[in-house]
Design brief:
By secondary structure, this protein is an alpha/beta fold. Helix content is 39%, strand content 24%. The model has no long low-confidence stretch (mean pLDDT 92).
Length: 334
């Protein structure tokens, strides 16, 4: 270790739109970042290049690292789902001086943090009646749709990754059936991620505009044509109720999110609660607090009563995934 450099744990949250990196003191149980930065993923050829940029000029010496990556991890490698990056533990370890490096699915990283999140980092939208030490589910619409869950193991929890966001989208009413029929020729396989994510919101918008003929105000067309993030424009207008089409997009998105969260809760029997992560849920909290959201979540026929008892919570701490990756890296040190 270089003299004068602080020994730290390096953590990363790698998504299709952005990569967040943070340095945590290896001896700080509070897991407060010493340094943190967010980089646009598309502007870098590799994760190693992002790490090099982050460490440049900082007196930091990583002793272990872990990175949550959006994609399935196998044998220490992952092909990022929404990025042209092949990320390898061995390669990253070599570039970081041979320290232990671990890769995990980004939702598994977020799930690692769930049991230790302070109350101020979580917003309860439905209290329910949680089962003590029950299974916890995590669903996170960001650029894509991530899903994971936690099962009790000894005195703690074990996080389990999944790629449930890529399962077949199942419409819950006639409008959603129309959406599926419109999307199928465009994508072939239509997953939940195609409609229930940041990348899915423009798909819903195009459906309302091109298939249902909803008018697009000139000011909205100009903003969308300006080359920025169309999802941010659509969500912003929908929340402010400044255009009928954007409000319709949000209403449909929220209904789809509630339904898929209910599906996940049934599949893993999440009697301890469902946690909503990712960038979108904190932004649309008023819509998630509405009684219609909880009703749609629980509307599963004979198992409606079971799901009505499941607590629903939104993770409001943006760096929760980073914290989870840091916890995972600390485990690698033993």
């Amino acid at each position: 270790m270089k003299k004068g450099f602080a020994p730290i744990i390096l953590a990363g949250d790698v998504g299709g739109s952005k990569t967040a990196l943070a340095a945590f003191s290896r001896v700080d149980d509070g897991m407060r970042p010493l340094a943190q930065a967010v980089f646009p993923s598309g502007e870098f050829p590799t994760l190693s290049a992002v790490i090099e940029r982050f460490l440049a000029g900082r007196q930091l010496a990583p002793v272990a690292a872990a990175f949550g990556v959006a994609g399935p991890v196998a044998d220490g490698r992952v092909q990022a789902t929404n990025l042209p990056w092949l990320v390898d533990e061995s390669d990253l370890s070599c570039s970081l001086g041979g320290i232990p490096v671990r890769l995990l699915n980004d939702l598994a990283a977020l799930a690692q943090a769930v049991p230790v999140l302070p109350s101020g980092d979580v917003e309860t939208i439905h209290a329910g009646l949680p089962v003590r030490h029950g299974t916890l589910a995590v669903i996170a619409p960001g650029t894509g749709l991530g899903e994971a869950f936690l099962v009790r193991e000894g005195e703690g929890y074990r996080a389990v990754a999944s790629e449930g966001g890529h399962a077949d989208f199942a419409p819950g009413d006639e409008l959603q059936a129309e959406l599926l029929a419109w999307l199928r020729p465009r994508f072939g396989h239509v997953s939940w991620e195609r409609v229930c994510s940041g990348s899915g919101i423009p798909n819903i918008y195009a459906f309302f505009k091109d298939s249902r003929g909803m008018p697009e105000p000139p000011w909205l067309a100009a903003q969308l044509a300006a080359g920025g993030d169309p999802t941010a424009v659509i969500v912003g207008s929908g929340l402010e109720n400044t255009s009928a089409i954007c409000r319709a997009v949000l209403d449909l998105f929220v209904s789809v999110l509630a339904a898929e969260a209910g599906n996940l809760a049934l599949k893993v029997l999440a009697d301890g609660g469902v946690y909503f992560g990712g960038g979108l849920p904190p932004r649309i909290l008023p819509l998630l607090r509405a009684p219609a959201f909880s009703r749609t979540f629980a509307a599963k026929g004979r198992f409606t009563g079971l799901l009505e008892r499941v607590p629903l919570r939104v993770i409001t701490r943006p760096e929760a995934g980073l914290r989870g990756a840091a916890i995972f890296a600390k485990k690698a040190l033993g």
